[in-house]
Design goal:
The structure is a single chain. Helix content is 46%, strand content 23%. It is built from 15 helices and 17 strands. A five-stranded antiparallel beta sheet has the order 2-1-5-4-3. Strands 7-6-10-9-8 form a five-stranded antiparallel beta sheet, sandwiched between helices.
Length: 532
């Protein structure tokens, strides 16, 4: 039927109503052909009435994938079977998609057969798009929650593994309800099974060693009532009788009124470390006792050796100067050997005695303000003759610097400098130099350096340089004879001990075959302090 005949049959009033309805309205004949396509249909689809009349919707308005389902709905309608509201998509003339929600009715002929299907729609594109976006957001949020739950589970698993590896567990105690929550690691530390043990504060105290319970209870009370830090080491008794040592750290959480409401913290099994530390303490105590015994023995032995040594030296000097029975030249030479050996041995004994006193914590020190420049000059003057006999020049660059007062024992400072100067001369090469210099440091100290152009020290010998009896031996090189260098091997050990007993430091730099520089740092005297 043509559009005109349809309107003649139904009247202009019907057309006017259908045209002014703000919803898409189309009318299909028994074969599905469009006989009416109102203005809203044209606005929504972009097709004019002339382009739509006589065509079926599935010819040009529907995506191919839904044509079959829409055709099926139409034939149900034309057969008098009216389904409820349904939705489908329209393809517009410019290839956009609009979503329409349809409700249907029909006109019947005299035989009560459907003549025309009237479809009234609502453009729900925006709502459908919104719903699609909401569904997408729900799906995205679901994926995020799934991912977050997975990451949380993995994080909890990593935390549990980390706690197991470090024997560290975490706990939380609700002070108001008394509920206590333990991580799995704490159950392992306490030797309990989660399904067989209800962790309450009272049960926790019962698992503590009886001798430690009061200490732990007092520490908890101090933390809750007085906001004191909760950090304690105590013993744990497992059900099988095994004792462990645990270290706890906790923190109290309070409400707006300052009332303690919750406490959380960690507990770590430190049994192995504790026993190792106890063993180290015992070993250290034993080593200290052995060191003190050694120092006492060395001091006692040194005192005992001095008496006969002094007697030997005294009698040798008498024999050397006996005018009634003057010794022969041969005897004088032998007596001199006795004196040289005795003096060297006495020097060794004195050094051992000094070191023993320092190690025992009883060095003979008289700390005061000392003129460093004058002391250095005096020591250089004493070292010059030794340098001349070895063909070594001793240079005093220290006294080119401004004067400085230091807070030390003058006698011990002289002993230290003479020892370092003597070593610089002994381990030098013929025609070499020894230079003493110095400067003030940023840490309010005075550094005195003694540099030589001697044989240097091999890197493998650096670690044993300040050890007792740790002599470096001989060195064959240009200008140095391959003979043994005299010394006791105690001088540097004593020097180091003396420097440190006066709150100083000692160190060195050396390059084998080129030379060495030994330095000491000693505290400067306060400004305005004068030496005696």
């Amino acid at each position: 039927m043509s559009n005109k005949s349809y309107l003649l049959e139904n009247g202009d009033i019907t057309r006017t109503i259908l045209e002014t309805v703000g919803s898409p309205v189309l009318i299909l004949d028994q074969k599905g052909r469009i006989v009416f396509f109102n203005q809203t249909c044209q606005d929504v689809s972009g097709f004019s009435e002339a382009e739509a009349i006589g065509r079926t919707p599935w010819d040009f308005l529907l995506p191919s994938e839904i044509c079959e389902s829409v055709t099926s709905v139409f034939f149900k309608l034309s057969a008098g079977d009216f389904p409820g509201t349904y939705e489908n998509v329209w393809l517009t003339k410019n290839s956009d998609q609009r979503t329409i929600s349809w409700s249907n009715s029909a006109t019947l002929n005299d035989d009560q057969v459907v003549d025309y299907v009237i479809a009234t729609g609502i453009d729900i594109t925006e709502r459908a798009n919104l719903q699609t976006r909401l569904e997408e957001r729900v799906e995205e949020r679901t994926r995020e929650l799934t991912r977050t739950n997975k990451e949380l589970a993995e994080s909890e698993a990593r935390l549990e593994r980390a706690q197991a590896m470090t024997n560290l567990g975490n706990w939380e105690w609700n002070i108001e309800t008394g509920d206590l929550v333990w991580s799995d690691e704490i159950y392992r530390i306490f030797g309990r099974l989660p399904q067989e043990f209800d962790p309450t504060y009272e049960a926790f105290l019962d698992a503590i060693h009886p001798e430690d319970r009061e200490k732990v209870s007092d520490a908890v009370s101090e933390a809750v009532d007085k906001n004191a830090p909760y950090a304690i080491v105590h013993r744990v008794v497992c059900p099988d009788g095994e004792e462990k040592v645990a270290q706890e750290i906790g923190h109290v959480l309070r409400d707006g009124n300052g009332k303690a409401v919750r406490m959380d913290g960690t507990i770590q099994d430190i049994t192995r470390d504790w026993h190792s530390r106890e063993a180290l303490i015992m070993a250290s105590r034993s080593a200290g006792e052995a060191s003190r015994a050694k120092s006492e023995f060395l001091a006692g032995m040194s005192h005992e050796l001095r008496t006969p040594l002094n007697a030997i030296l005294g009698f040798s000097q008498i024999l050397q100067t006996d005018s009634r029975n003057p010794p022969t030249a041969r005897q004088i030479q032998n007596i001199q050997h006795i004196l040289d050996g005795g003096n060297h041995l006495l020097e060794l004994v004195n050094e051992i005695l000094d070191l023993a006193k320092i190690e025992a914590g009883h060095p003979d020190l008289s700390i005061g303000v000392v003129d460093a420049n004058k002391t250095v000059a005096d020591c250089v003057a004493l070292a010059l003759p030794l340098g001349e006999t070895q063909g070594i020049r001793v240079l005093d660059d220290f006294n080119k610097q401004p004067s400085a007062n230091i807070h030390v024992d003058q006698l011990r400072l002289t002993q230290i400098l003479i020892n370092l100067l003597s070593n610089a001369i002994k381990y030098n090469r013929k025609g070499g130099t020894v230079t003493i210099d110095g400067h003030k440091t940023r840490n309010n100290s005075l550094r005195i350096s003694i540099a030589d152009t001697g044989i240097g020290i091999a890197r493998k010998d650096h670690a044993k340089l300040f050890q007792m009896f740790g002599r470096l031996g001989t060195f064959d090189g240009p200008g140095v004879e391959g003979t043994g260098i005299e010394g006791s091997g105690i001088g540097l050990a004593t020097t180091k001990a003396l420097v440190e007993s006066m709150a100083g430091n000692i160190g060195f730099e050396s390059e084998e075959g080129i030379g060495s520089t030994f330095w000491i740092e000693l505290p400067l005297a306060p400004d305005g302090a004068a030496h005696p």
